[in-house]
Amino acid sequence: MFVQEPPRLDNTYEADSPLRGYLARTLPADVLREIEPELQELGALAGGPLYRLQLEDRTDEPVHIPWNAWGERIDEVRLTRVWQEAEPLAVRFGLVATAYEQAHGAFSRIHQFAKVYLFAPSTDIYACPLAMTDGAARTLLDSGNRRLIERALPHLTSRDPATFWTSGQWMTELTGGSDVGSSQTVARREADGTWRLYGRKWFVSAITSQMALILARPEGNPPGGRGLALFYAELRDERGRPRGFQILRLKDKLGTRKLPTAEVLLEGLPAEPVAGLTHGTRAIAPMLNVTRTWNAITAAALMQRGLMLARDYARRRIAFGRPLAEHPLHLDTLAGLQAETAAAFHLAFLVAELMGRVEAEAASDDERALLRLLTPVAKLTTARQAVAVLSEVLEAFGGAGYVEDTGLPVLLRDAQVLPIWEGTTNVLALDVLRALEDTGGLKPLHRAFGTWLREVPEALAPLAHEARAALQAADAWLAETVDDPVRLQADARRFALTLGRAAALALLVRQAAWSQTRGDKRLAAAAHRFARHSVNLLPTGTPPAESRMLALDEPSKS
Ligand code: MFK
Predict the structure, then answer these.
(1) Band of the pLDDT at 25, cuts 50, 70, 90?
(2) 1-10 pLDDT, tens digit each
(3) CB of residue 102 inside a 6 A radius of ligand 1
């Protein structure tokens, strides 16, 4: 009887040509030599024992235990096996620490995110608490609060599982998922001058963290984000019991089901202001920007995981008398997915690279501006690509892609969180407009395109031209729309995606030019294919008045 061979993974570092080509181009040879053994080790784990454990542990989920047998409130959360193994590994490989140790100066973020990229697809979204931990470390450092930096940083950046802490990011409320400024959590000052927090947080990711950064409104403060303050809290006492909060329930989510996301009641949680008693959303912005970068890297990583499996399967699966890999239509489909994945990879890693340069104080003003602008651009662009690519990946397996015990459907379910959390596509598109106010428009991006596309061989010149043309179209739209707030908002998503896709194409062309001189034409093929998918999305909208008619199915008034 015929039995279908399942897809297999090898060492995911060795098999990843976009990652290896990128590291070879960007890192000095001695840095690459130094970090490569670690990447090899992580690739072997991710494609071997960790992936096998993921498949074995597929149906396990975290469990909330509110009470102990004797009636004491304990709010314990039991984690899955993959999560239990992921934490010590993450600490040993320095998935957060690497960015702060800065052993490789401005290249440290590339080093860190190369590890994150290999680790994330084999560890069931354990990247989430790590992302928030990294974000908390950055936020505390940027706050300049010496006491809290000295207290928490050694834990957040520890290389020792016994002292390592993860951090939560407690923002989301029923009133405000995106509109955080409408939060209702209250901060009350006690007679002894200490602070306690009261309220209900609606969506707290990775509830097992030891500390959290929390937004709350000091009593008497005005409404809106400016009236919020950022607080630091250590969440459990020495016996592991919650300090002034209860877990009401774990969320029943479409995906990221290994990640214990909780609804939490704050009943006097002791907390300490991080940076004054106002402007909480401004104070937590570093957290948002760091986690959005993790989001983009994870998006690229999940796409690559799906493609590695689909590619392997294409060689094993015989249909209509030959392997799928011999069918031109199947090859064409996978080629399109590879082009999108390579584009997402280069956009996400550009942000990582810029973050490293800014943090090592090696960045120019333009690079600082680019980091601010391209962080939301990369997050929103790659998240949408991930959902589209992983949906196609499932289809590339036919019915097997829709059957749970192949371990494939989870890829799509987990990808679907990427455009939602850490700011939806629309919220981030508005953040791109906000960022343009800080960066003084698109000039830094024009100059970056000039640098990236300086030495382009003739065969790639039309693609460089197309990337520039899309950026110019975005700039022309901005000039035309800047005084029309309704159109500005209505087109913001198309504008942001055009920037993302134009930047991704320019980056693909730059890498393709480098690879081609070394005899590798894969990136050039990816750039050609990517350019044939849409890059400039601005012409595809509907006038705002018609949108209302369409969106709400209202009859025309005229
Ligand atoms: C592997 C994956 C890793 C991801 C794991 C994460 C797991 C965690 C899951 C979650 O917790 S999901 C919840 C995440 N929530 C969000 O991302 C919130 C989305 N909403 C927004 O981003 C809104 O735009 C925002 C809350 C920031 C709006 O707040 P306000 O107070 O109404 O906005 P306002 O007044 O425009 O901005 C306040 C200040 O912050 C301004 O500065 P000034 O006070 O100096 O004028 C802004 O410029 C600044 N700001 C806002 N966003 C910024 C920023 N600064 C820098 N970067 C940004 N991104």
Answers:
(1) very high
(2) 999 999 999 9
(3) no
> At 63, which amino acid appears?
V
User: Rounded to whole angstroms, how far apart are CA atoms 506 and 509?
Assistant: 5
Structure tokens that stand for 438 in this block: 């800080």
Determine the average pLDDT of the residues in 412-420: 98
pLDDT class of 177 with cuts at 50, 70, 90:
confident
Contact call for residues 13 and 21 (beta carbons, < 8 A): no
Instruction: Looking at the CA of residue 375, tell me the nearest atom of ligand 1.
Output: 59
CB atoms within 10 A of CB 286: 19
Distance CA 411, CA 393 (A): 9
Per-residue pLDDT of 324-338, as tens digits, reads 999 999 999 999 999
Q: What's the Cα-to-Cα distance from 502 to each of 178, 309, 469, 495, rounded to whole Å?
A: 27, 28, 8, 11
- Residues 6 or more apart whose Cβ sits within 8 Å of residue 526: 338, 339, 342, 343, 508, 512
C-alpha–C-alpha distance, residues 34 and 12, integer Å: 19
| 372 pLDDT above the threshold of 90 | yes
In angstroms, rounded to a whole number, what is the distance separating the alpha carbons of residues 173 and 184? Answer: 8
d(CA 86, CA 124): 9
Q: Is residue 423 a contact partner of residue 482, using CB atoms and an 8 Å limit? A: no
The finding on whether 211 has its CB within 6 A of some atom of ligand 1 is no
Report how far Cα 187 is from the mean position of its chain's Cα atoms.
30
Range 80-118 burial, b when 16+ CB lie within 10 A, else e: bebbebbbebbbebbbbbbbbebebebbbbbbbbbbbbb
CB of 176 closer than 6 A to ligand 1? no
On whether the CB atoms of residues 118 and 12 are closer than 8 A, the answer is yes
CB-based contacts of 313, cutoff 8 Å, min separation 6: 6, 7, 324, 396, 397
CA of 420 to the centre of ligand 1 (A): 14
Tokens of 207: 């509830």
* Alpha helical stretches, state H, 317-460: 328-359, 365-396, 409-415, 425-439, 443-452
Residues 299 and 382 sit within 8 Å (Cβ to Cβ): yes
Please enumerate in sequence order all residues whose Cβ is within 8 A of that of 192, keeping only pairs 6 or more positions apart, or say none.
Answer: none
Find out whether 66 and 73 touch, Cβ atoms under 8 Å: yes
Residue from 172, 185, 77, 187 nearest 132 by CA: 172
Provide the pLDDT confidence category of residue 557 given band limits of 50, 70 and 90.
low
